[in-house]
Write a structure and sequence with these properties.
Strand content: 5-15%
Helix content: 55-70%
Radius of gyration: 39 Å
Distance between the termini: 114 Å
Number of helices: 14
Strand order of the largest sheet: 6-5-4-3-7
Shape: elongated
Length: 436
Amino acid sequence: MNGEESLLQTISSYLDQGRDLAMGWATSPAAWSQFALLIVSWGAAAFATRKIVPRIEAWVRPRTEGAGLFAALLRFALRFVPMVLPLLAYGFTAVGEAFTRQVFGSGAVIAFGKRLFLFFAARLFVAHVLTDPFLRLLGRYVLIPVAALNALGLLGPVSDWLESLTVEMGNITFSVMALIRGLIAGSLLFWLGSWSNRQSADYIKAQEELRPATRELAAKAAEVVIFGAAFLLLLNIMGIDLTTIALLGGALGVGIGLGLQQIAANFISGIILLIEGQTTVGDYVELDGGETGTIVKMTARACILETFDGRWIVVPNEHFITTRVVNYSDQGSANRYEAPFSVSYETDIDRVPAIIERAVADLPFVLTAPDGPDCELRAFGESSVDFAVEYWVNGIDDGRNKYQSQVLFAIWRALKAEGIEMPYPRRVVEMRTQKG
């Protein structure tokens, strides 16, 4: 109750001061002259805006469809056009304030007008310049309220009041103002860090002369550096002594030792994978558990495999270090497959290899190096002679390419064209009847 009464008394005191100030302005010739200067400044700014803005737009707009950094800067500059009017009014008012202070010895009214024009500029800045949703949200709920408090002359008292309130977290004490300042600065720093990380990652991944593993490692290193620098800068802004990081580091070490072992192991394994480069994005792999897929993303904790049917499998990095992993691809290397088939025992089997090798070699995706198609006799089955043709292709038969399906079709057509029968199981059934 005492806190509420104190707050109500403070608000009442400010209202009384505002009423007294308004009455003083209403009866003061100096205040009226300052009001007149504000109106003249706004009118002069409006007149200048009508003359300047069309020229600015005519100079900028013809280049807005161009590409490149300069065109992007021109398009960005075009967003500031709506702010020309309040900023010009602010500048003209500043000149008038210097005049009134020399003549009348005061300039409270014109100073209020300056702050009001600045508030209008802040609103237009949020509405027209900020396009990122996060920055616009921050401008709407931070920049505009701060500009409103500044216009009313309450920014200093509110800041002092927030500075007097404290929050205790163990042995560390924060003022509410420092906490708010840290939240705002942290939001901006980590947004800037995310933007910088995206730009640096796009630039690094565009360097085709580097190995894929090297690009991934450089992108991760840039990410660690950017966000590490943002974190240290945030601590400095909040006024936290960096020596307290030693305590935080000790606690983090205990946490890793007790509960974060797997996370640390996966993180270190990810670094090893990127350095060695034996497994990288784009490789088709088979894990020890039988999972197969193409690596589409490598993070600090896990690799993402995409199967041929579009499913994503998240595999911890540690599995690539501690278990057997079969890598079927190395940036598009050739792979060997085989297609089994059978013929009947009535077939002249000496003709079969040449027929099948010729038919498979005619397929456009079958390679001649490191070896052409090779048809081999595998076994004498119960009701058929079993063969298999081995062939090389440049890629993975992962369900998208369907190499083996086309090879089997070619084998079927070749055998049919030569009149060779592909047998099916035959059984002799003997029926016995008992004589009565």
